Amino acid sequence: MLLLFGFLIVTDATAERLPTALDKNAVQFIFQRISETNYIPVGTCFTVTVPVFKKGLKRIFGHIKGLNFPYVVTAKHVLFDTNGKVRPELYWRIGKIGGGVTYTPLTPSPTNVMRILTHPDTSVDIAVITIDLSQSLEVARALNQKEHVIELKEGRISSTIIRDKKTVEKQPIREGDDLFFVGLFTPFYGATENVPICRFGRVSLVTDEKIPFADAQGGITPQDLYLVESGVFGGNSGSPAFVYRSKAHRNFHIVHPDALQDEVFLAGVVKGTFRDWSEIKVVNTRAATVSSESVGVAAIVPGYYLHEILFSDTEKEFRARLAASVFETKK
After folding, report:
1. How far is it, in rounded angstroms, from Cα 199 to Cα 23?
2. What is the sign, positive or negative, of the torsion defined by CA atoms of 158, 161, 162, 165?
3. Which helix (H) or strand (E) holds 8?
4. I need a labelling partner for 72 at 20 to 30 A (CA). Which of 115, 202, 268, 289 fits?
5. Bridge pairing between strands 211-214 and 197-205
6. b (16+ CB within 10 A) / e for 266-280
7. What sections of 207-312 are H helices per DSSP?
């Protein structure tokens, strides 16, 4: 069951360092089990929570303190194979308070009440894992019982830092913006806890045109992407990517110290890297081969697509039903 707690507080950020208040426990890893005791890393995921409100009440009165519905976000190609089927034996690797990790199955099954949400635009490489709608009452009760979550070492990213498309259009991401992402580094990911790596770069291309990129089926599909000057490793897919935005540049006429703090918001989800193919010269033979090399440009799926998934009419209605269930259990 997806039960998460904690906060992502993004203040006092600088372009040179990771924000000190960033809770890296909000970033976890996805593994595939290949034997009873052997798991291999395949990608990154991160947890997002959306506040739950009782339908029909004003926000200030309808908010249920401490009740935030959890979602696990990753790249769609991490979960689905080239045939569009969910990969078998996928597990969510979560750290435990006091040390150690535990593996929770991610693949939906009769005994696993998870479901996978995707965007109506099939080219959007984002997948969201959440609780099945039929389990709303049980989830509502469990989320209000702290003993169910104190064992897990988890953080969360608030949905308040995920912008919708209209907001992004008014305050667009621009070339030169500082960006970082936090994700899995397959050579070292931690033996007794999840240890994510942080990669830093700058946005290098923003365009209204769709950019051709390899899809999960091996073809080339035009997609909405941000391009970033940063290296990407296998396993970084699904990582949350954040943009620094200096308030001092936009509010230079305000001298209050709070106005000089940078803000950080979710730019999107790491998809992968662009590759180039170069010939390898072989001495004393006519044979020739090629090598795939990263060109140092990462592809990021815009975060407003995630916003559209989380705030679809279906999900908003579900969260309203969940809130109603909580109020019923409190009577």
Report:
1. 16
2. positive
3. none
4. 202
5. unpaired
6. bbbbbbbbbeeeeee
7. 247-250, 303-310
Distance CA 191, CA 113 (A): 29
Identity of the residue numbered 173: I
Residue from 28, 31, 32 nearest 45 by CA? 28
Which amino acid belongs to residue 71?
Answer: Y
Tokens 């000190």, located at residue: 20
For 3, the 3-state DSSP assignment is coil
Q: Which amino acid is at 68?
A: N
Q: Is 101 within 8 Å of 192 (Cβ atoms)?
A: yes
CA–CA separation, 148 and 128 (whole Å): 22
pTM of the predicted protein model: 0.79
Which amino acid, one-letter code, is at 320? Answer: A
User: How long, in residues, is the chain?
Assistant: 331
* Neighbour tally for 323: CB within 10 Å: 24
Specify the range with the lowest mean pLDDT, choosing from 36-45, 108-117, 118-127, 277-286: 277-286
Q: Residues with Cβ < 8 Å from 308, sequence gap 6 or more?
A: 119, 164, 165
Kindly state the helix (H) or strand (E) to which residue 271 belongs, with its residue range: strand 262-280
CB contact burial 211-232 (16+ within 10 A = b; e otherwise): eebbbbeeeeeebbbbbbbbeb
pLDDT at 128 over 90: yes
**Per-residue burial over 55-65, b = 16 or more CB atoms within 10 Å of its CB, e = otherwise:** eeeeeeebebe
For residue 12, the 8-state DSSP code is S
Residue type, 7: F
